Amino acid sequence: MTEQNRFYPEDNLASQVLGFVDAENYGRYGLEGFYNEELTGKSGEIMAEKDILGRFISIGNKVNPENGADIYSTIDRNIQYISQEYLKNAISEMEAQKGSVVVMDPKTGKVLSMVSIPDFNPNTYYDMAEEHPDYFTNPIITNAWEPGSIMKPIVMSMALDLGKVEPDTKEKFGGNVWVQGYEIRNARDEAFGIETMTQVLENSDNVAMVWVGNHLSNEEMRNYFDKYGFGKLTGIDLEAESAGSLLEIGLWRDISRATMSFGQGISVTPLQMIMAYQ
Question: In terms of Cα–Cα distance, which of 21, 27, 22, 14 is closest to 119?
Fold first, then answer.
C-alpha cells in the first residue's frame, strides 16, 4: 500500500513560515495551517460491485480526485539561509536565548526572509511537540513587545508631517522630565543640552521625545499609529497573527502619550514594525 507524506528537504529552514503536516495529514501553523484547505485537495471515490474474486463487475458513480493547490511564497531561499546563519552567530556571540530577523523589499512589501531561533525541523516536528510546542509559532507575527527606541523615528515623523518641527529645530533638554507625577529619564541619566531633532534621534533622547510628543494631541498621535498599522493585523497569510496592543483613545492620558513617544505603553510585532518603517 502506498502512503504519502509531506517532506521538507531544507529541514529547519523557514520552518516557522512553512509549518508542518501532522499525522492526520492536517496542516498546522505557518502556510500549511493557513492554506490547509487549498493544499489538501479532494479525495476521489468509485461506487462499484465486485465479484467473489474482488474484480469490478459493475462501476457506478465515479468522482476523480483533485490535487491540492501549489503555493509559492515570497521567501528567497538564499536570503533566508544567510539570515539564519547570521542570526545563529549573533545569538551565540551575544549569549542570547532567542532572536528574529525579517528582510522585506521596501518597494513591494514582499517578505524575503523571516527567521526566528529557536526553530524546529518539520520532518520531525513530534520531537518538539511535548517539550517545546512554542517553537512551532512564528514570534515575528505572534509575539508583541514594547518596541522602545525604534519607535522614536515613527513619532518624530508624525511631528514632521504635521509641521510641528523641522529636522533642524533646536531645543535645550535636561536629563529628566516629570509627567503626571512620573519621572522620565534618559537611558544613562544623560542631559544632552541643545539638540536638533536629528540629534534627538541620534542620541535616542527620551526626554526630548516627550517634548516632541507634547506637540501632538492624543488624537493626532493615535491616528498616526493607526495609519502606520499598529494595533491591527497586517493580513499576512500566516496563522496566529497578533495585532499587538494600542490603547483606545478614551483611555489615553498625558503619561500615555509621553511613554509612547519613546516606545513604551504600546506593543507591536516585529512584522508591524518593519512594515511601518517600510
Answer: 14
